[in-house]
Amino acid sequence: MLYEGLCAGQWAGRFFKSHGAQLGTLLLVVLPHFMQAQAPGAIFTRDDTLRGSITPERAWWDLSFYNLNVRIDPATRSISGHNEVYYTVLQSNQVLQIDLQAPLKIERVEQDGHTLEVEQAGTNAYFIQLKKEQKQGAREALTVWYSGKPRTAKRAPWDGGFSWSKDGAGQPFIATSCQGLGASVWWPCKDHAYDEPDSQAIAITVPNGLMDVSNGRLRRVTQNADSTRTFEWFVANPINNYGVNVNVGNYTHFADTFQGEKGLLTLDYYVLPENLEKAKTQFQQVKPMLRAFEHWFGPYPFYEDGYKLVEVPYLGMEHQSSVTYGNGYRNGYLGTDLSGTGWGKKWDFIIIHESGHEWFANNITYRDIADMWIHESFTNYSEGLYTEFMFGKEAGAAYIRGCRKQIENKASIVGVYGVNAEGSVDMYSKGGNVLHTIRQIVDDDEKWRAILRGLNRDFYHQTVDGADVEAYIIKHSGKNLQKVFDQYLRNTSIPVLEYRRSKGKVEYRWANCVQGFDMPVKVTLSPGVYEFIYPTTDWKSSPCQLRKKVEILVDENFYVEARGQ
Questions:
Q1: Which letter does DSSP use for residue 29 in this model?
Q2: Which helix (H) or strand (E) holds 276?
Q3: Which helix (H) or strand (E) holds 287?
Q4: pLDDT at position 149, please?
Q5: Residue 11 and residue 410: Cα distance in Å, rounded?
Q6: Tell me: the pLDDT tens digits for 27-56?
Q7: Residue 218: which residues within 8 A CB-CB, separation 6 or more?
Q8: Does residue 273 have a cis bond before it (omega within 30 degrees)?
Q9: Is the pLDDT of residue 140 over 90?
Q10: Closest to 283 in 3D by CA, of 321, 331, 315, 246
Q11: Reduced to 3 states, what is the DSSP secondary structure of residue 339?
Q12: CA angle, 503 as apex, 502 and 504 as ends, to 5°?
């Protein structure tokens, strides 16, 4: 996902949040103590819980495959189709939850030729009463037919839905985006991130003269008798719901290949004909990006499905193996350097950032959107790592430090669990700076790179909790970082290193921090020499003798403040 719009390089608004419809029975949620500062007096609806929690109607069955078929009518801005849902029974139950957001409607559901009773639960969830006994270990399937006019995105990709637009020749130019809001805004599914299908088929029917580009590889194009064509795509890997996409237009295609760590990776580009020459130039950044991210994170996670970059009528999004692009074929974020250092104008933000999500979002996916920082903090950090790979270590560090001006420190990076509520916008720049700070604590660049690669290897194609990621970094770094995570992810204050002169030595401690905060930090205790000190919240002294004037300079790569007394 992206930063919300910027104007003249300044932060312009908060990240858009959507927690479903406002109708339904109110449900008070007991918040963890560290979330109360984020959302004082927050009240969540039954719809929020049905959308954001692993309900009993979800927990008993495990997704294995979706076969999604959708017909798109640009003239009426309506869609219709069906989704075959294949699953394994984990424990016996006769009620299954499927999600579909209004104004779309489920027309009927069938299993083994029998029409099933469907009960609407809240506004956007449906409980399906199964007739066939669901026996533990059995592999079953059902088909959901639906239709209607899907929600139109007003500010894609932040609010989600369908973007209905026209290209320069007046032809329909259409795309979907739905993180946060959920994939059920345009297709019926088990709309929670914890459970992904092992693979998926996507068949999209559009009028003649248009093409659909979706995830995975194109298997077949069928000419239909009603002047439409059906494009059948197949995703060979697990895929998160919001990563599934539709992109419809009068596309032109060009291709390339990349020799990567796992062999030959196909690169496919779909753009409007009017932008073909610009795309051929701008998209040359894809190969260096792949080289950089394979260096830092390990092999591209979806060789079987290829890599695509697809032009869309909005800014862009990290749809798995079908990354969407709308940055106007220029470097920076809509031409702006988010860091203010100049380094962000040397590469195309959408190509780099959204492709970084192939590792952190699509390969490693949050189980609950409250841990959206797993996606955005690491991918914000990837921008600095790309800069480092291309232009040197100090360039990458300068970019990351420059992004601190975007940090608000108004609310926790971690959201509210179980109600589809992500954390604050600080999951981007603050999260990236937290990871950069941890790299300094590890103080071993090869070990740090091994941790980043190890995350993508050991959590390959998995959904994880934030706690899983924290524990992994703690274990493999050999550093006790729990208080660091608590401070930066769950607290809004910036740690302050307080220091003072006492009897010819310097004393120091951490202030403005969580109880027990004990992060080591590099400082100058001797002119021009940086070394670690190990402050706690109690005063400690350095064995180094100092001149009368006491001034500790903290290594600027640590996201902290310092204050002398």
A1: -
A2: helix 276-282
A3: helix 286-297
A4: 98
A5: 14
A6: 222 223 233 334 545 789 999 999 999 999
A7: 231, 232, 233
A8: no
A9: yes
A10: 331
A11: coil
A12: 95
The residue assigned the tokens 């004393």 is 507
Mean pLDDT of the chain: 92
Q: Tokens in use for 292?
A: 């950089």
Tokens 């002047």 appear where? Answer: 227
DSSP code string of 408-458: --SS-SS-BTTTTB---GGGTHHHHHHHHHHHHHHT-HHHHHHHHHHHHHH
Residue 233, strand partner residues: 202, 218
Query: Would strands 307-311 and 263-271 be described as parallel, antiparallel, or unpaired?
Result: parallel
Q: Verify cis geometry, omega within 30 degrees of 0, for the bond prior to 40.
A: no
Rounded Cα distance between 130 and 424, Å, is 40
**Could you report the per-residue pLDDT of 493-510, keeping only the tens digit for each?**
999 999 998 877 889 999
Q: Please give the Cα distance from 489 to 438 (Å, whole number).
A: 13
Digit-coded pLDDT (tens) for 218-267: 999 999 999 999 999 999 999 999 999 999 999 999 999 999 999 999 99
Q: Are 108 and 146 in contact (CB under 8 A)?
A: no
Distance CA 27, CA 432 (A): 34
d(C-alpha 559, C-alpha 540), whole Å: 21
Buried b (16+ CB within 10 A) or exposed e, 193-227: bbbbbbbbbbbbbbbeebbbbbbbbbeeeeeeeee
Question: Would you state the pLDDT for residue 505?
Answer: 83
CB 266 within 8 A of CB 255: yes
The dihedral built from the CA positions of residue 131, 133, 136 and 137, taken in this order, carries a sign that is negative
Task: Residue 15: name the closest of 303, 376, 294 by CA.
Answer: 376
**Would you state the pLDDT for residue 11?**
28
H or E element that contains 144: strand 139-148
Task: Please check the confidence at residue 277 and state whether its pLDDT lies above 70.
Answer: yes
Of 243, 301, 289, nearest to 459 by C-alpha is: 301
Task: Write the burial class of residue 565 (CB in 10 Å: 0-12 exposed, 13-18 middle, 19+ buried).
Answer: exposed
Give the model confidence (pLDDT) of 510-549 as tens digits: 999 999 999 999 998 777 789 999 999 999 987 655 455 5
Computed on alpha carbons and rounded to an integer, the radius of gyration of the chain in Å comes to 25
| DSSP-derived secondary structure for 210-241 | -EEE-SSEEEEEEE-TTSEEEEEEEE-S---G
Angle, vertex CA 388, rays to CA 382 and CA 392, nearest 5: 180
Q: What is the average per-residue pLDDT within 104-131?
A: 97
- pLDDT value of residue 551: 73
Q: How many residues does the chain have?
A: 565
> Quick check: 19 and 43 in contact, CB under 8 A?
no
